[in-house]
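Continuing the batch. This is chain 6 of the set; chains 1 through 5 are on the previous pages. Same settings as before, nothing changed between runs. Recording input and output for traceability.
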Amino acid sequence: MIGIREINLTFVGIFGMALSAAFCDIAWTRKKVLAMSGGIASILLLQGIFCFTVGSDITEELYPLITHLPLVVLLCILNRKCLWPTISVLTAYLCCQLRRWLALLIVTVFAGGPVMQDIAEMVMTFPILLFLIRFIAPAVRSVSQYPVSMQCQFGLVPALYYGFDYLTRIYTDLLLEGVLVAVEFMPFVCSVAYLIFVVNISKERQIRGRLEHTQTILNLQVGQAVREIAALRESQEKTRTYRHDMRHHMQYLSDCIENGRLKQAQGYIREIYSEIDSNRVTVFCENETANLIFSTFAKRAGDSGVQMHVRAGIRKTVPVSETNLCVLLSNALENALYACREQREKGREGVIEVSAFEKKGRLFLQIINSCGGNVVFDEGIPVTNRPGHGIGVQSICAIVEQYGGVYTFSEKDGRFILRILV
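Output for chain 6:
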């Protein structure tokens, strides 16, 4: 015969399974909704069969096998993952405590009994379920996007509570008997969870501070990159202007020669040549930004006695923005030029070799430069204790990670090698 307890068992089953599905990060298509609905109906039918055959007490003891395990398997199939569906079910089980405790509070206030508790739990089932789905489920689902370690930390308390509840309330009477270890266990878990939360918040704050600092540096460098590009384009425009005004220069020189002012003409020619040469942009590839940067650093390298060889096959459009391309190339070449200048100061050869090309919509950049062979790496990233240095490497890493690319830093036989794929 169906009693109030059996009906309440059906209510809590619907509550837990619906909440588990809401907590699980699943794109709910019509097919998946039908599959989930059919799964819930099948599990409820299985519960009913056990209630009629073995009774509600044994059914509650078998709940992990006839309800939770099938539910986890169903959600794993729909989600195509294993960890988060399991955490979703455990978290939903923990939330069942809300309706149980509120019902106990009502029973205590009105001096009721087990029947009142079952009725109170059923009455509060759907309002609490709707509240949790509307306001709590989105935040819970967002945790599924965190790293696995964070997901495990999130699921630790629900998992411990699940084991505690079955061991002390369903399979034994340790909690009702007032065994101190059982009574104090969940407060202990809450204390540990709180301390872990405080530590994690502190770490997150430190990481956020470093990210904000890096973002500030990147913003400054992007601003500087924009100004450098504008200055280089202005220089290039001046060169175009000189070429456009060439007939005026020729007319002036012609007048000087006709009037016998040869030295004045020669001085004018040298002046014009010097101005044009100082603003000359060498064409290395189709991309204007890359040409401007390569030309600028080639001139700076030449002025420092450093050899710079560029092989570039970059098209007009690249998979990164103009400012990010400028920051990448400028920082990489600045670091390479700095290392080569140090070598020149020690009487050694300074050489920079640049290779850049596109393949299958990805940009590959390799810069090899002379170095002293004393580069210090921390987890594959070159580090330095020189004030003001190291920011360029952080900028390179941040931009490459922004595009989901790959970077490697290495040193071999006195040569530093940077490879970037974005």
